[in-house]
Amino acid sequence: MQEPAPDATHAAADAAPKARVAIDTLRRLETPEGIEILLRLAGPVPRAAAFSIDLLIRVGAYLVLLPLAALAGVGLGLLLLALFVLEWLYPVFFELRSGATPGKRAMGLTVVHADGTPVGPAASLLRNLLRAVDFLPVLYGVGLTAMLVDQDFRRLGDLAAGTLVVHREDAGLPPSLPAHRPLAPPAPLGLEAQQAILAFAERSGELSAARRTELAALSGLAAAGDRDPAGALLGIANWISRGKPD
User: Fold this and answer.
1) Distance (Å, whole) CA 220 – CA 204
2) What is the tally of structural domains in the chain?
3) Do 122 and 209 have their domain in common?
């Protein structure tokens, strides 16, 4: 069987990363402080589900407010004002308050600027007013087409306002240390040494007993002849995390 030419192999290898990038929904951004953040873009399906939830909420509010029309003289005007507020200012209010409408929050989504910062008043108002265009000709036909064409799944309102809809990444629970009697280190420890000991304790459950013993012995912090150097290191880790022994 004839092997592919080296140039062809290299070309295929170069093409593979490009193909992966095309379908990647993660966007890497770097803040002015040099911190890299990842944004996981929300596609049409979760956004449509969020819109459906918000629509049900608004319809429920419409039904509650419908009796306003029976008020003589001002009833119809009050009803139209309430409908305007619910249709156009409902999403703006929630986006400025928490970054997401109730529907988006239920789907784990949030609205941010293209640089990852929380959405501001002007951008939120603009992206929501342009829903009138995105809705054309019916059922968000223009908006859906724009999302399918744009690599960041932005509808026209997002493109004009410079916003993205992303999956909200909730902070996980902080790592916990295995319970152990705190043990003061035999000598003062620098910051890097303390961080290394805490990292060892946090990952100790993922290591075999032999590996824990080997790493603890290499640290040089266990007493000579200690039968449980890993236990000694866990004690020091607990001492560091609490700041002092019990």
Assistant:
1) 17
2) 2
3) no
